[in-house]
Every structure is written in C-alpha cells, then in structure tokens.
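In line with agreed milestones, the collection of sequences with tokenised folds has grown. One record among many is set out beneath this paragraph:
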Amino acid sequence: MFIGKVTGVLWATQKSPGLEGLKMLLVQKMHGISGKLSGKPVMAVADKIDAGIGDIVLVMDEGGSARSILNRDNAPIRTIIAGIIDQVSMNGEKIKYY
C-alpha cells in the first residue's frame, strides 16, 4: 500500500467488462508529510470511494487483494483506491488534507 495523490482521470469508450462501473484515476506516489510526489503515475480504480483530482488517497497495489475488495476474481485490476486520507501523523508532525 502507499499514499498517493490523484492527478488525473481516465476515460474509456471501450474497456474490459471487469472494469465496467469503476472510476479509473491516475495516482502518483506521495510522501505523507512532505507532500513530495515521486515516480510515474499509475492507473487505479475506485468503486465506492468518490476520489477525484487533488485528493490524497490510500492505494493498494496488489492485484489479488484489489480484486478481492471488488469481489471480481477475473477483472484485470492490480491497483485500487482503498480510501481518502484526511490526515497523516508521523514523528510528532500532523498534516491535514481536508
């Protein structure tokens, strides 16, 4: 799992049936306290989590667990947004994202 920032939205006129009804977002890894972004953005799906551009999110980047959360065993999914982060506390520092 990692903390990330939603940086974009993906739209597809045609997609695998396993992705039907899911929001597809671009997420970039982020340090929870400094806010520094790192690496390249990855595509993550969101089901009942109403995340959007600019939101700080908790991302699960492991296919089996992502498919298990969605109860879609054969879906082509590796990365899923598991929650929207309101606040991070680390080493006595507290950062609020709402």
The domain at 2-96 is CATH 2.40.50.220 (OB fold (Dihydrolipoamide Acetyltransferase, E2P)). The mean pLDDT is 92. The radius of gyration is 14 Å. DSSP finds one helix and seven strands in the chain.
